[in-house]
Specification:
9 helices; disordered N terminus; disordered C terminus
């Protein structure tokens, strides 16, 4: 976790600071054909359901309040694919990933993904670290299974994390009249929150 301030706490902080002045309707995201999104503000302020398809170890290190973890690969599979990528390149890594996630294992993971999609047909999104290969694989497999192209968050976890950090910096402008906010049932000064949040930049 992120020392004294996790990404989830940053999100709570921003919801507190921004929520009073912004009203974004979840239904604005719902339509007959939902595209991928970069509307991070809407996602966070409305606690839009998110499916994190990164490995469990990545999810445990940091994710978001409304996210659940249904990974494409478990930690060991991700480790094997990572080594293959470094030693033999992307094509070989993709081939290995397909070999590792197939048969009954693929069926079981598809069941988790499609269950999430069925539970959140008009508002949810999926994401991986950068909104790249893993998100696209899961998106394609869901579409092949159900005929529905379930939308993803463009830029993935990295882009959403960057948005939160930039919004926190903007919200902590010295001219702000607010001095304290409630974060996870305890009070933190804006200065403490600001200094703690800077640690996220090194991740």
């Amino acid at each position: 976790m992120f020392s004294s301030l996790s990404m989830r706490k940053v999100q709570i902080l921003l919801n507190t600071v921004l929520g009073a002045s912004l009203s974004v309707e979840v239904r604005a995201l719902a339509n007959s054909h939902r595209a991928d999104t970069t509307d991070f503000r809407c996602l966070f302020l409305n606690d839009v359901p998110l499916m994190d398809v990164r490995a469990p170890v990545e999810f445990e290190k940091g994710s978001f309040l409304s996210a659940v973890n249904f990974p494409l690969m478990n930690d060991e599979e991700r480790h094997q694919v990572g080594i293959c990528y470094k030693e033999r390149g992307q094509d070989a890594a993709i081939e290995l990933g397909n070999e590792l996630v197939q048969g009954d294992l693929k069926v079981a993971r598809l069941k988790e993904w499609t269950s999430f999609c069925d539970s959140h047909p008009n508002e949810g999104y999926l994401f991986c670290f950068r909104g790249g290969l893993r998100s696209n694989f899961v998106q394609r497999w869901i579409e092949e299974e159900t005929g529905v192209r379930y939308p993803l968050v463009t830029g993935g976890y990295k882009a959403m994390r960057t948005f939160l950090i930039e919004e926190l910096d903007r919200s902590l402008n010295p001219k702000s009249p607010l001095e304290l906010v409630v974060v996870c049932n305890r009070y933190l000064s804006f200065l403490d929150v600001y200094l703690s949040s800077r640690m996220l930049l090194s991740l």
